[in-house]
Amino acid sequence: MILTATVSCKKFLDQTPQGAIDSEKLNTPENIDKLVVAAYSALGNEMIHTSYSLWPWGSMRSGDAYKGGDGPGDNSEWHDYETFVTNRTSNSRTDLMWAQCYNAIRRVNEALERIDAVDASVYPDKVVRTAEMRFLRGHFYFMLKILFKYVPYIDETIDQKAYGTVSNRQFTNDELWSKIADEFRFAIDNLPDEQSEIGRPLKSTAQAYLAKTLLYKAYRQDEDNSVTGIDPGDLNDVVSLADEVIGSGKYDLAADFSENFQGSTENGKESVFAIQYSRDDGTPFGRINMGQALVYPMNQEFGCCWQHIPSQNLVNAFKTDANGLPMFEHYDDIDVTEGDDFIVNTFDPRLDHTVAIPGHPWKYKPDFIYQESWARAPAIYGYYTTLKGTVAPDDPTFQKIPPFMSSSSNWQLIRFADVLLWKAEALIELGRKDEALPLINQVRQRAVNSTGRLKQMNGNYTSTYKIELYEQGVNTDWTEDEARQALEWERRLEFAMEGSRFFDLVRWGIAAEYLNHYFSTESSKRTYLQTASFQKGRDEYLPIPLNQINYSKGLYTQNTNW
Amino acid sequence: MKFTLTILLMSFSAILHSQQKVVSGRIINNATSAPLAGATVQSGSRSVTTDSLGRFSIQSRIGETITASYIGMVSASVKVDASTGNLSLLLNQGTVDLNTVVVTGYQTQKKADLTGAVSVVNISEIKDIPTGNAIKSIQGRVPGVFITSNGNPSGASTVRIRGIGTLGNNDPLYVVDGIPTKRGLEELNQNDIESMQVLKDASSASIYGSRAANGVIIITTKKGKKGYSRVDFNASVSMEYYNTKLKTLNAQQRGAAYFQASVNDRSDPNNNQIYQFDWNNDFDNPVLNQVVLPEYIDAANTMRPADTYWYDEIAQTSILQSYNLTFSNGSERGNSLFSIGYFGNKGIVKETFNQKVTARANADYSFFNNRLKIGENLSASYIKNSLVPVGDVMFTALVQQPIVPVHTEAGGWGGPASGMTDRHNPVRLIEDNKQNKSHFFRVFGNAFADLEIIKNLHLRSTFGVDYDGTFQRTLRKSYVSGFLSDPSNQVSTSQVLEGNWIWQNTLNYNFEIDQSRFEVLAGSEQIKYLNQNFTGSRQGYVLENIDYSYLDAGSSNVQNGGIGSAYSLASFFGKINYSLSNKYLLSGTLRRDGSSRFGSANRYGVFPAFSAGWRLSEESFIKKSVPVISDLKIRYGWGKNGNQEIANNATNSLYSAIYGTEHIFDTDLGTAYDLTGAGSGQLPSGFVRTQLGNDSLKWESTTQSNIGVDFGLFDNKVVGSVDYFVKKTSDILINPGYLAVIGEGGNRWFNGASMQNTGLEFLLSYTATISRDIEFTVTGNMATYRNKVTKLPEEVLTAYPGNGTNKTIIGQPINSRFGFIADGLFQNQNEVDNSPAQPGKGVGRLRFRDLNKDNIINDDDRDYIGKFDPDFTYGINFAIRCKNFDLSFFLQGVKGIDVYNDNITYTDFSSLWPGTNWGARVLDAWTPSNTGSSIPALTLVNKNDEGRTSTYYVENGSYLRLRNVQLSYTLRDKLKSLRFQSAQIFIQGSNLFMVKSKSISATDPESVNNAYPIPSMGTIGLNLTF
Question: Per the domain annotation, does A13 fall within a domain?
Answer without folding.
Answer: no
